[in-house]
Design a protein that fits this description.
The complex is a heterodimer of chains A (about 425) and B (about 350).
Chain A (H helix, E strand, L loop, with lengths): L1 E8 L2 E4 L4 E3 L2 E4 L1 H8 L5 E9 L5 E10 L2 E5 L18 E7 L1 E7 L7 E4 L14 E9 L5 H21 L8 E6 L3 H7 L5 E9 L7 E3 L2 E2 L6 E3 L9 E3 L11 H5 L2 H9 L5 E10 L3 H17 L4 E5 L5 H15 L3 E8 L20 E6 L3 E4 L4 E4 L21 E4 L15 E3 L1
Helix pairs in contact in A: 6-7
Chain B lengths: L3 E8 L16 E4 L5 H9 L3 E9 L1 H6 L1 H15 L3 E4 L6 H18 L3 E6 L3 H6 L4 E5 L6 H16 L7 H4 L9 E3 L4 H14 L28 E6 L3 E3 L15 E4 L11 E3 L7 H5 L7 H9 L5 E8 L7 H17 L4 E5 L2
Helix pairs in contact in B: 1-6, 3-4
Chain lengths: ~425, ~350
Amino acid sequence: MKLEMGHINIKDVQFGSESKIADGVLYVSEDALRQVVLEDEKLKSVSFDIAKPGESVRITPVKDVIEPRVKVEGQGGIFPGVISKVGTVGSGKTYALKGMAVVTAGKIVGFQEGIIDMTGPGADYTPFSKLINLVMVIEPIADIKQHQYEKAVRLAGFRAATYIGELARELTPDETHIYETCTMKEGLEKYPELPRVAYVQMLQSQGLLHDTYVYGVDAKQTLPTILNPTEVMDGAIVSGNCVSACDKNTTYHHLNNPVITDLFAEHGKTINFVCQIITNENVYLADKERSSDWTAKLCKMLDLDGIILSQEGFGNPDTDLIMNCKKIEAQGVKTVIITDEYAGRDGKSQSLADADAAADAVVTGGNANQVIILPKLDKVIGTMDYITKIAGASDETLREDGSLEVELQVITGATNETGFNRLSAR
Amino acid sequence: MAKLKAVHYINQFFAQIGGEEKADYPAELRVGEVVGPGLAFKQAFGDELEIVATIVCGDSYFNENLDKAKADILAMVKEQAPDVFIAGPAFNAGRYGVACGTICDCVQQELGIPAVTGMYIENPGADMFKAEVLTVATKNSAAGMKDAVAKMAPLALKLAKKEEIGVSSQEGYMPNGIRKNFFEDERGSKRAVNMLLAKLAGKPYTTEYPMPDFDRVDPVPAIKDLAHATIALVTSGGIVPKGNPDHIESSSASRYGEYDIDGVDDLTEETYETAHGGYDPVYANEDADRVLPVDVLRDMEKEGKIGKLYHNFYTTTGNGTAVASAKAFAEEFSKKLVADKVDAVILTST
């Protein structure tokens, strides 16, 4: 399967009377976008704002970050089963708007939304401080349940991103990347000497507002399966979760999964990148056993030599991580895991809730408990009303001078477990 | 600003006094002298840090006269009041490594002076002290002196200047169990791909998080004759006599309690409670047997199902309590359980 990914570089985002992209500038009609967002009767109002790198701006509570994309050739459309009709994606041609993102924000849902600082020390820890962010602060109608609000905001973000992505349909990309994988037989014939490698991605599926959707299906109701790695580039997997901001995979992370990009960079040279395997992180033991049995079985059936295993979230999913690692290693498949750590504010505690000798190759996204002081910034997009309730904050978070004393946990994407960042720990 | 001061500790061999035959050489202070490896340090320190004294001690002498050697050396270091204490490097010399670790640990604890040492990773001194003392990983012989000094000297300077020490992988010391964040040169996914390529090729690679030793304990064989067995109750559920007489903390406990339950058939709301934070204590306080089942075991005692319930129970709070503390508690009271011929323990949590 082959996907041509065209990058449209966005140099600036401005509000305008008409939505369009011209000379690398995205103009957004607030009225037109408002209509798209408020299609959902559960949403009362939305306000838009633009946050640029280096500005003294704090966005909170952040829910999701989404990169606008448009499918210009090939089967299916962006966010299949969610926005577009169900149809297998990952082939043909797709354009992505680089350098910007749609950020959804709004009142608290699960006490676990995050912070994006566009400047200062906090900005060093989130990849989204480097993007021009079109922020949507969304208000629900009265008397709405939290999970309904979460769903409405989630879908509004995808609608908005799709609307903006469409503006690029007729453009010529600034650069094009080609991602192509082989079928099983082709791969064996083409790269007989290269080790067969897959990416095993654990999707957050603990439930109660900790969810992920695959082609529109709630991941906790799925069995481990295989994807062509290009499928996620068209939005096959979207975030629906509100786990701690630092190590949840936003939709932006799914669309731009760095494990996939970096495995493709070696494909045909040092490895044969066979496929992506997705599994879940359910809370019941039987589910954990079944899912990890299945990932190990798939690895064996695919005759893999090695895999990279990424986690999402922490604590309970640590057990899924270790089960997967143990069982996959037991099949003779070399495994490297990507996780993050909760080693306490002093860094002295055991970092994971589970461990096994088979997990002998670990990449870490850093200690999420590390305390950081975020200075007061000039402008807040969203609200500071819930700042002490975000996971990683406390009653003492808001200091007299307006600065925040928080754990890295509160920063969206800070210790991401797809290896998105350079942050690590020893 | 006055030059910062260092005191350097070396053994008889590196002081060129002699080998094994001179290992009983007692501790000696040489004020104003820079000896052996000290010369390499002196060069590395330049004008910033000065070795004001060298302490020489035979390896056998140190280890065989531990208390005296420690006291003598501490007094020597104290007199010089250095900004940093340096020991070794000891490479793969076992007794030297243990001496370096021991004396660095002492100097830090007793005098509050930061210390750094260096040795080969398999030197027994490394495992003993790397968590307490900054210990640079060196080669296994003195041929690695240049490399060892290149890593130890900058650390000594930072310690003397009271600057923050970076992460182990960058500064060259052995991981000491304190996790520290830093920015790598490459993103995590790329590091993962590189690690996988090395693992696939059977080449060396370094995990970024060595799995902790979870110290899993195999259960003892099942008791065949329960009717004559003595059973003890131990809990991390924080059950204590009402009023928590020993002030066991609600979280991150620093102590455990030992309480006599001779003649106690039932834990009531008036007599017992939980000290444990982090969970709704209502049901535990209403009836502490729910966490520490004294009532049920008394019934079983009467029915002859068990021999007897041990007369003490041991308790602490598991909430946020460090594994090291929990292990130390159990190591202590387990001895009493064994001495009193307890056959089995029922361990309950919250």
